[in-house]
Specification:
The complex is a heterodimer of chains A (174) and B (279). Chain A contains 7 helices and no strands. In chain A, helix 1 packs parallel to helix 3 and helix 6 crosses helix 7. Chain A has one domain. Chain A is 72% helix and 0% strand. By secondary structure, chain A is mainly alpha-helical. Chain B is an alpha+beta fold and 279 residues long. Among the domains of chain B are: 101 residues, Rod shape-determining protein MreC, domain 1 (Thrombin, subunit H, Beta Barrel); 80 residues, Rod shape-determining protein MreC, domain 2 (Thrombin, subunit H). In chain B, strands 1-2-5-4-3-12 form a 6-stranded antiparallel β-barrel. A 6-stranded antiparallel beta barrel of chain B has the order 6-7-8-11-10-9. About 2% of the residues of chain B have low confidence. The chains are: A mainly alpha (174), B alpha+beta (279). At the A-B interface, helix 3, helix 4 and helix 6 of A face helix 2, helix 3 and helix 4 of B.
């Protein structure tokens, strides 16, 4: 349990730092703005209660906001994702329920994880970019940015997941 | 009362969700209000320090380009310096030259945080009020206009970039002095719009746009952009002109903060005009 919490704190810090220091600087023609940090919310283990998921989403969003200079924006999208996560998990529940408390690529398989991640990230990005552009340009532009950015976020989130698999094997070896 | 508690218990998840979202919306509205401070965002200590550390690392990869730019600028300034002029009439004649007075001073600063991909872009500089920066000062780079200082802390300053829907910069054609204003439409960070140019003005692709110097913020003739496209919208009296910014805002590094020494005098004088007409 304690080890799980330490790992969660480590992942939180790592995702925030990668997001703020690396990914926020990818500004290819203004269309590609990947925000894979939301992977943290989507892969919180099942033993965390829904209310705690919301609070953690709030803290994560707020942290990203403070560093990106967009107070409230990521907080809103992140809490929203934390809320729909519950419904998404029961909607996608495998026939024989979740075998483990961990929601990860390793436990649930590539196909399931791809569907889950794509829906989660797309909704998060759609909310995010819609709020960001609310008073400015048309919906089509927003949708375009959402689709392109979500695509890159999914790829990067998968890479993050691969790191988790590796660290688990190492732990077993220990 | 009991029922109320039961209701609260039943919907506690939804209520928590709504509560957190209301906080987020509150923050969003507070923060987007133009006159409100963006102080919390990038100018405070913690984030400022983190970005400064990051910048120290990233800067190494761009040193060559930065060196080139600074060397070019040095060469240009040297050619204007007093030592590169020879007295025309020998050394015996002393001319008390009082014709010139200094209007602008420049302060070099480094950008430690920058964005071009948002609707509202801000830049953070590594100098603040202790270095004499005040809100409202202009910021330029060696290649063009950058923005206007918005908030200042002791060691950092935030700048509203030209890539912000609320920024409007007084500009003119370098060749014929017709003036309008440059704004950004939020689409591509390399291109902006020049507004208020009447249809009788001869516009050509490739025309250079510079600051007009009418505002008290920027000196005249600082480059802004080059005309890349223009057309006359039907039923309107003004051109729709697209310009490409001379400065690539993604490559921003060293900038100059402009201090206008006669700003107060300028504004006071113009204020008298409005007061006179009111009376």
């Amino acid at each position: 349990m304690l080890r799980d919490i330490v790992i969660l704190i480590f992942r939180f810090t790592a995702y925030v730092l990668i997001q703020v220091l690396v990914l926020n600087n990818i500004q290819f023609s203004g269309y590609i703005n990947p925000y894979p940090y939301i992977l943290f919310v989507l892969t919180l283990p099942l033993w965390i209660s829904p209310n705690l998921v919301l609070l953690l989403s709030f803290v994560l969003g707020l942290t990203i906001d403070v560093f990106s200079g967009t107070l409230g924006l990521h907080t809103f999208a992140s809490v929203f994702t934390g809320f729909i996560r519950q419904g998404l998990l029961s909607l996608l529940k495998p026939n024989n329920d979740y075998k483990s408390e961990e929601i990860s690529l390793q436990n649930l398989g590539f196909q399931w994880f791809l569907v889950y991640l794509s829906i989660g990230i797309f909704i998060h990005h759609l909310v995010l970019f819609t709020i960001e552009s609310l008073s400015f340009t048309g919906f089509f532009h927003t949708l375009q940015v959402t689709v392109i950015s979500a695509f890159f976020s999914i790829i990067i989130a998968f890479i993050f997941e691969l790191f988790r698999i590796k660290s688990k094997q190492e732990n077993i070896l220990e | 009362m009991k029922r109320l508690f039961l209701l609260l218990k039943k919907y506690n998840h939804l209520l928590l969700f709504l509560f957190l979202e209301i906080i987020a919306v509150y923050l969003l509205v507070q923060n987007n209000h133009f006159q409100q401070t963006v102080f919390l965002n990038t100018a405070n200590r913690v984030t400022g320090n983190l970005y400064e550390t990051k910048n120290q690392v990233v800067e190494y990869f761009r040193l060559k380009k930065i060196n080139n730019e600074l060397a070019n600028e040095n060469a240009r300034l040297k050619s204007q310096a007093f030592s590169s002029f020879q007295p025309l009439f020998g050394e015996n004649i002393v001319i008390n030259d009082t014709v010139y007075y200094q209007q602008y001073t420049y302060l070099s600063a480094k950008t430690i945080n920058n964005s071009v991909n948002k609707r509202e872009n801000y830049i953070t500089l590594n100098k603040g009020s202790l270095n004499g920066i005040e809100p409202g000062m202009g910021v330029i780079s060696t290649q063009g206009v950058v923005g206007i200082v918005k908030n200042v802390s002791n060691h950092y300053a935030t700048v509203i970039s030209i890539l912000h829907p609320k920024t409007s910069i007084s500009a003119k054609f370098k060749k014929n002095k017709y003036f309008g204003s440059v704004v950004w439409d939020g689409e591509n960070y390399r291109y902006g719009k020049l507004k208020d140019i009447p249809l009788h003005v001869p516009v050509k692709v490739g025309d250079t746009i510079v600051t007009s110097g009418y505002s008290t913020i920027f000196p005249a003739n600082v480059p802004i952009g080059v005309v890349v496209d223009f057309y006359a919208p039907e039923g309107e009296n003004f051109f729709d002109i697209t310009i490409e910014f001379t400065q690539d805002y993604q490559q921003l590094n060293y900038v100059y903060v402009v201090k206008n020494l006669t700003k107060t005098e300028h504004l006071e004088l113009e204020k008298q005009n409005t007061q006179d007409t009111e009376e």
